[in-house]
Write a structure and sequence with these properties.
Blueprint: E1 3-7, E2 13-17, E3 24-25, E4 38-45, E5 50-56, E6 64-69, E7 76-81, E8 87-90, E9 96-103, E10 106-113, E11 119-125, E12 128-132, E13 138-143, E14 146-151, E15 158-161, E16 171-172, E17 178-181, E18 185-188, E19 194-196, E20 206-208, E21 214-221, E22 224-231, E23 237-241, E24 245-250, E25 257-264, E26 267-273, E27 278-280, E28 285-286, H1 288-293, H2 298-302, E29 314-320, E30 326-332, E31 339-343, E32 347-350
Antiparallel strand pairs: 1-2, 1-32, 2-3, 4-5, 5-6, 6-7, 8-9, 9-10, 10-11, 12-13, 13-14, 14-15, 16-17, 17-18, 18-19, 20-21, 21-22, 22-23, 24-25, 25-26, 26-27, 28-29, 29-30, 30-31
Length: 352
């Protein structure tokens, strides 16, 4: 099923099947007379087949909560009260929801069990980024200048470095190895040994493919920054583009890398690299919320929100149409490379 999870300009979270254009509201709405409560962010759990939505009412009678839509369609329920979450990340198994919110000691990473609402505070500090282990039992957390591994219930934290470099989220491989930055891009094996890759820290922007073999990164060379793919087994580097790149995302099947490059004043463009050729899709004007809330942190969102469809054939991005309204821009990465615009999408991701 081709389906999108949208946040619309009215502050609602909806599922939108592309075949019929319906808007199915998810997360419900907290009941509060005379107070406008808006969906601030949302996430779709592919494994759990549920949606989580973070609501707040701004400064007016401050309603703050995270709600979860039941997978059986029975409705929504409050999962976390009194939390102003601005980012949500479902665990790979679908049993847990991790969430980021402001707290008294800086940003606060919490994990809630979807079944019963049990909440564990994992870490506090700023900046704060993380990744779920493939088996959902642990999180790798980058907070301030530390990288640590901690159990999903917050127990047994293990600091693996106190000299973290400039980067955002770490990445797990299927065998339990961990990729992060110190003075160099480093792989830490599951037995605790570390292996610097000998390429330096570069820009600190990188993303691991689903197979855990190739890393896309912004390589800073003598000729300036360039998007490059590094093979972790052979050490081979393959250049992708030297254009100004805002973000990049691997397809679910690991065959292609989609990058957003500057196409002109106020425009971005998907370029899709398959290892040999670079395909260019039609330019579009990106929506302000996406530019402000998502793209500066694209590595974190790559862990949780899908810009690629599950079959690795289509891409979605929130854009602006000719009338200045926000739309979901759905583009095919396969012939005939069509573009479909869905109105009313402040933010948009795949939910399939």
């Amino acid at each position: 099923m081709r389906r999108l999870l949208l946040l619309d300009p009215a502050g609602r979270a909806v599922l939108c099947p592309l075949e019929d254009g319906r808007r199915i509201r998810v997360g419900g709405e907290p009941t509060m007379a005379a107070v406008r409560v808006q969906a601030r962010t949302a996430v779709w759990s592919t494994a759990g087949q549920w949606a989580a939505v973070a609501f707040d009412s701004g400064d007016v009678d401050w309603v703050r909560q995270i709600r979860v839509e039941s997978p059986d369609g029975a409705g929504s329920h409050e999962l976390v009260p009194a939390v102003t979450a601005f980012y949500l990340n479902a665990s790979p198994c679908g049993r847990f929801l991790s969430h980021l919110s402001p707290g008294p000691l800086g940003l606060e990473l919490g994990v809630s069990t979807v079944e019963d609402g049990a909440l564990a505070v994992i870490e506090r500090g700023q900046p704060l980024f993380w990744a779920w282990s493939p088996d959902s039992t642990q999180l790798a957390v980058h907070v301030e200048d530390r990288v640590l591994v901690v159990a999903a219930d917050g127990s047994n934290p293990q600091v693996i470095t106190g000299r973290a470099g400039s980067f955002l989220a770490p990445w797990w491989t299927a065998d339990g190895s961990l990729l992060y930055v110190e003075q160099d891009l480093v792989i830490r094996s599951s037995d605790g040994t570390t292996h610097p890759l000998g390429i330096g820290a570069g820009s600190g922007r990188f993303a691991l493919d689903p197979d855990g073999r190739r890393v896309a990164l912004i390589d800073v060379g003598e000729d300036g920054p360039a998007l490059t793919v590094l093979d972790l087994l052979t050490g081979q580097r393959v250049p992708v583009t030297a254009e100004r790149t805002a973000a990049f995302f691997w397809s679910p099947d690991g065959r292609r890398l989609a990058a957003l490059v500057v196409a002109g004043p106020g425009e971005l463009q998907w370029v899709v690299f398959d290892g040999d050729e670079l395909l260019r899709l039609a330019p579009f004007r990106p929506a302000p919320a996406w530019l402000r809330e998502v793209l500066p942190f694209f590595e974190q969102y790559a862990h949780s929100h899908a810009v690629w469809s599950a079959d690795s054939t289509e891409l979605v991005a929130p854009g602006i149409d000719a009338d200045g309204s926000t739309v979901a821009v759905v583009q095919s990465a396969e012939a005939p490379y069509g573009t479909e615009l869905l109105p009313g999408a402040r933010l948009a991701w795949w939910a399939d």
